[in-house]
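Q: What residues go here?
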């Protein structure tokens, strides 16, 4: 079992109310967070935590007397109901109490439009309060941005739904099976765990398996139109590149500072706005900065002076073991690996054809036809060896015309592709950019939870 994850044979007696709310939102999200111990901040979750900070700062106890009281951050356990919770604010008089749950953002227009997970979280708190001898008929959701409260009645339907969800969640965890992703849900678009959960990709693989089962055909593939178009998320963070002999990256509070031996501090960046730190050549980084970045899941990448990707420093890797098992199974399945590799290579050849079409004003029609034909052959390749051949032939044609795409050809010329080491300026820039691309893909693959050393095309020998 991975440290920090739950053992399905030993599910805790108490389910946190917040996890039950997550289960109501998306069973898979709850499983990834609670069972795998994964959490990934998004702009929304970071803002929510920031707005919530003063609620979490103090922990009060409920007084014994019968005076009206307001107690913050009250922790309760309820072994019979099987739930535990931390109530943001508990208001009451005597044993009559009202839990108040704080949420970021603005209140909806009516209580009927309240999000179900908010109702479930409050109802779970109600179960804990009742088991501890309190009388509790109603809760409140307080919206921090609009500073409004909306009431939640603890009626029979809500309490029954909450108890049923508790039983289903316990059963799900005991079975040890991660629930499938939601199908084409708006919730996935804003989910901070989408990069770990991979809803579209996992659903596609599930459909492929189902299709296989239906047709009994090992090489069957899904129809293209079933794949939802992927839109890259807006970057809230950007990479920090540090190039220069004798530079040091240090941490100071919430910032990274770049220092030079000669000039002192020359630049700085907010850590929460940094997606990765790329260090070129003799740039150093201090241990506090490294540890802080590891804790936040921000990779530190090391490059040679010439831009060669040397390695990566990352915190604890993802615990999404099912994903890696699926990757290894797919990599060990020759037909599935071939089907993925065919798409990659035919797409690559098609892209090179389009680049020439757009940027080489004198490209002969025969060159474009050849690339189009090779892309089609790659799409239907029956063996990995043939695929390597189609890719090599396409690269030769593409780089044969590459020099014609250079806009300032009076200063730069390109005869052929050479590397390790590149011997002319154009090949040097190409190698540098390939290094950056390799780094981007390597860190992306790691960030998602895959093993970057096991691919579907270039197989281990
Ligand atoms: S991406 Fe979608 S399916 Fe996956 S955890 Fe988030 S909400 Fe659930």
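A:
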């Amino acid at each position: 079992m991975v440290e920090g994850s739950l053992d399905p044979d030993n599910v805790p007696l108490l389910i946190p109310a917040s996890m039950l709310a997550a289960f109501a939102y998306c069973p898979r999200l709850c499983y990834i967070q609670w069972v795998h111990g994964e959490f990934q901040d998004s702009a929304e979750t970071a803002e929510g935590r920031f707005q919530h900070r003063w609620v979490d700062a103090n922990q009060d106890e409920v007084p014994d007397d019968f005076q009206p009281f307001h107690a913050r951050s009250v922790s309760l356990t309820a072994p019979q109901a099987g739930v535990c919770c931390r109530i943001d604010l508990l208001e009451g008089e005597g044993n009559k109490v009202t839990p108040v749950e704080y949420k970021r953002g603005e209140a909806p227009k009516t209580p009927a439009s309240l999000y179900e997970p908010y109702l479930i979280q409050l109802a779970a708190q109600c179960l804990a309060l009742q088991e501890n001898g309190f009388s509790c008929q109603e809760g409140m959701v307080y919206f921090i941005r609009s500073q409004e409260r909306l009431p939640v009645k603890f009626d029979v339907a809500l309490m029954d739904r909450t108890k049923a969800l508790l039983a289903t969640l316990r059963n799900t965890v005991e079975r040890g099976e991660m629930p499938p992703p939601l199908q084409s849900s708006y919730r996935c678009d804003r989910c901070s765990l989408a990069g770990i959960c991979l809803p579209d990709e996992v659903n596609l693989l599930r459909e492929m398996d189902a299709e296989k089962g239906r047709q009994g055909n090992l090489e069957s593939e899904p129809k293209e139109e079933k794949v939802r178009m992927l839109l890259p998320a807006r970057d809230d963070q950007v990479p920090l590149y540090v190039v220069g002999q004798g530079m040091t990256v240090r941490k100071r509070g919430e910032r990274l500072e770049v220092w030079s031996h000669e000039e002192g501090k020359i630049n700085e960046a907010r850590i929460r706005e940094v997606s990765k730190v790329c260090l070129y050549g003799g740039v150093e980084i201090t241990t506090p900065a490294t540890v802080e970045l590891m804790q936040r899941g921000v990779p530190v990448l090391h490059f040679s002076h010439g831009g060669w990707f040397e390695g990566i420093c990352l915190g604890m890797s993802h615990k999404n073991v099912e994903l890696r098992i699926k990757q290894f199974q797919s990599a060990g399945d020759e037909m599935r690996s071939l089907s993925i590799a065919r798409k990659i290579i035919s797409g690559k050849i098609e892209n090179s054809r389009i680049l020439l079409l757009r940027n080489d004003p004198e490209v002969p029609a025969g060159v474009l036809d050849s690339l189009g034909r090779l892309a089609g052959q790659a799409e239907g390749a029956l063996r990995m060896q043939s695929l390597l051949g189609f890719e090599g032939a396409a690269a030769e044609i593409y780089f044969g015309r590459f020099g014609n795409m250079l806009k300032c050809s009076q200063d730069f010329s390109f005869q052929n592709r050479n590397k390790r080491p590149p011997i002319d300026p154009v090949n040097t820039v190409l190698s540098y950019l390939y290094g950056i691309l390799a780094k981007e893909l390597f860190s992306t693959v790691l960030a998602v939870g895959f093993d970057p050393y096991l691919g579907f095309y270039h197989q281990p020998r």
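A: Context that may help when evaluating the design: The chain has a mean pLDDT of 83. The two ends are 30 Å apart (CA to CA).
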